[in-house]
Amino acid sequence: MSSAGPLARHLPIFDAALRAALADGPPELLRLSRYVLGWESADGSPAAAGGKRLRPLLCMEVASACGASPVDALPGAVAVELVHNFSLVHDDIQDRDLLRHGRPTAWQLIGEAQAINLGNFLYTRGLRQLAESRAPGAQLALAMLFEAVERMVAGQWLDLAFESRSDVTEAEYLDMVAGKTGALLGAAAGIGAALAGAGREQVERLRQWGERLGIAFQVHDDYLGAWGDVSATGKSTSSDIVRRKKTLPVVLAMATGAGEELRELYRSPAEDPAHTARIVQLLERAGARERTRELANSFAREAEALLASTGLTAGAAGGLYEFGRLIVERDR
Amino acid sequence: MSSAGPLARHLPIFDAALRAALADGPPELLRLSRYVLGWESADGSPAAAGGKRLRPLLCMEVASACGASPVDALPGAVAVELVHNFSLVHDDIQDRDLLRHGRPTAWQLIGEAQAINLGNFLYTRGLRQLAESRAPGAQLALAMLFEAVERMVAGQWLDLAFESRSDVTEAEYLDMVAGKTGALLGAAAGIGAALAGAGREQVERLRQWGERLGIAFQVHDDYLGAWGDVSATGKSTSSDIVRRKKTLPVVLAMATGAGEELRELYRSPAEDPAHTARIVQLLERAGARERTRELANSFAREAEALLASTGLTAGAAGGLYEFGRLIVERDR
């Protein structure tokens, strides 16, 4: 939870609202939702294994920075968290990922077909929270959420399409990340502002701030996936490389002289640690380590400039500035 | 298109609105949406291969019966058709179906992972049509749509869960159908009424009417899947039986003395026509043919009684009565 930093104070209220949103419905779908959200183990026993809740906490903090109560942002906060989990459940099917937060992914537990249903349930339940709100900013907030999901789906489409390509450019990759990760974090921020009753321009700037932050977050994640400290991330070093994921450093290095050897190694069995070490070496020689760091910092700086342009005082937006810095300084 | 009967007159306006809803967006997702909706072949050449558009046409006819212009119902009509197609795209992945309307299903064309994305895109784009409407009844309409999708997802969950069970009861099966098929047809009717500005009680009665009709529709479909006329349906006779689908007649017969032989035959290779013929014979001996017919007619009668209770004149609701009769009299 450390990366939520100062935002973690919203967690108890948020958690209660999220539980309330899942208080009734089809028992099996609710049970699996509790598993995915980390509240329960597969056997129904209590657990504490969920994600960091970055998006909803950000949504609430933005509302607070805009002078409203964080409680006003709850329908949006719950909506973005459920939409985020919907995307994780479907992504894990699409990417054939076996583990999330160290536990079997939903489709591993219930099969692909039912996991598609589970994702659709989480998505629908999430949207309802916002659609049923009568707050003045709710319709704008819902429109932002739909826009974000369309961009998220298009981003996921690109991500899958990139798997079979070895000529993806930096610009294409960042465009994919803007959709897949930036759009929803941006919507979380924009929705918080809209539900706080902020004006259209301030809402849009905060949305853009969140989107840049989301891109910085993912680029930094790609950095950690190649050079993260094993003791901090809890994953093996170079976990993305071991899984042969086409992250930003790999995309960058493939466009250089190292590309040919790299493509060759990416087709080799993932278990060989010598191959993994050689890949990381190639990435570094290609300058991908520095460029990835540079891009993460540059998006974070862009975000900070956008935040400064919102007209919010440093006092009101203190938590948002701090959150922005944590995004690219975290080591896991 | 024959089963749309008198409602088909709304088709040109509806088609234009549906095309307008898909005028912009990610090019690949739009291209595949046009394929799924039957406007294009896989190679992008023009086609005329879509579904019957029953839900949107019903939505428009209900609005008209309530004294509004069918045009007022367009945001809802487009929404329900896109939501319907979202469910078909995901269902085809889940059921491993290879063909729909005689053409390869989406996942056959683009793989499961991208077909999940395509479904999510169609769903989101559909919801947006209604969410962006400023009509007075739009919020009620959207709430009905969300409720319907949750029930549809729960129905699909049950349908998949039933595949591995041989003790499904008639009541359980009908409950599944009410969710999987009834909910969205009910929502189509209720949304048409809501967008026409009808009062809450009339909206709810028309929603219930549509739901009963949806159940009658599916039960009759199950009938045709066992005893449909090959020349009319364009499928081989007993197409559901050949595919070893657990339709209502099968569920009914499994609970009788024929159950054991039936279960045995359902595990046998689907290609053997002698097995298919024997299965149909067992269904008839178990009385499943009559009971299925009886249930379809009984839901259709219930629907007609609900329609009579709405306060709409026979003149205004003439198209709705005719549509209701066509549902259980169609031979394909």
Automatic annotation (TrEMBL), chains A, B:
<dbReference type="InterPro" id="IPR033749">
    <property type="entry name" value="Polyprenyl_synt_CS"/>
</dbReference>
<comment type="similarity">
    <text>Belongs to the FPP/GGPP synthase family.</text>
</comment>
<keyword id="KW-0479">Metal-binding</keyword>
<dbReference type="GO" id="GO:0004659">
    <property type="term" value="F:prenyltransferase activity"/>
</dbReference>
<dbReference type="GO" id="GO:0008299">
    <property type="term" value="P:isoprenoid biosynthetic process"/>
</dbReference>
<dbReference type="InterPro" id="IPR008949">
    <property type="entry name" value="Isoprenoid_synthase_dom_sf"/>
</dbReference>
<dbReference type="Pfam" id="PF00348">
    <property type="entry name" value="polyprenyl_synt"/>
</dbReference>
<keyword id="KW-0808">Transferase</keyword>
<dbReference type="GO" id="GO:0046872">
    <property type="term" value="F:metal ion binding"/>
</dbReference>
<keyword id="KW-0460">Magnesium</keyword>
<protein>
    <submittedName>
        <fullName>Geranylgeranyl diphosphate synthase type I</fullName>
    </submittedName>
</protein>
<dbReference type="InterPro" id="IPR000092">
    <property type="entry name" value="Polyprenyl_synt"/>
</dbReference>
